[in-house]
Amino acid sequence: MFLTLLLVTFAVSLGTAALLAGLFRDPVDKILARIIADDISSAWRRYITFAIYVTGVSGGVRIWDLEQYITPRVAPSARMLEGVEKVADVVALTTDRWVLEVYRTLIGTLQSVAWMLLVFFVFSLVAYVIVRVSERRSAN
Fold first, then answer.
1. Domain tally for the chain?
2. Per-residue confidence of the chain (140 residues) as pLDDT tens digits?
3. Which member of 10, 30, 99, 109 has the greatest number of CB atoms within 10 A?
């Protein structure tokens, strides 16, 4: 059951990242073509697309949070009972937990890609201003 959850969260995050990469392909192309006028802009676009996939999947599939479904934890209320640690049960994967994990995956993917694109667009804006200033200086 855990492996199925892992595969589902991976598929959801990969699909969401693919959708976002497709949605932002044209804006990224236009920005890079304006800032970097050479053929190297296509290589940068590929890198940005790769970064969208990597940040999306890493933000969506949170392995450390999914460990709760396979690792028993020590019960916090009964740390030591007569010299023996009391181990709590592993959290059960119910339908409600599945829905919650898929939702967390979707939101985590969107959030990670949004931050990555925000950083890209901020640096692009700075580069655009630098390009505009240099164009004005060369025109004068």
1. 1
2. 878 888 999 999 999 999 999 999 999 999 998 888 777 888 899 999 999 999 999 999 988 777 777 777 666 555 555 556 666 676 777 888 889 999 999 999 999 999 999 999 999 999 999 988 988 888 87
3. 109
Angle at 71 between CA 65 and CA 76, to 5 degrees: 90
What does the alpha-carbon distance between residue 45 and residue 92 come to, in Å, rounded to a whole number?
42
In DSSP terms, 87 is beta-bridged to: 74
* Type of residue numbered 136: R
Unique residue bearing structure tokens 């969208």: 52
Token pair belonging to 88: 């709590």
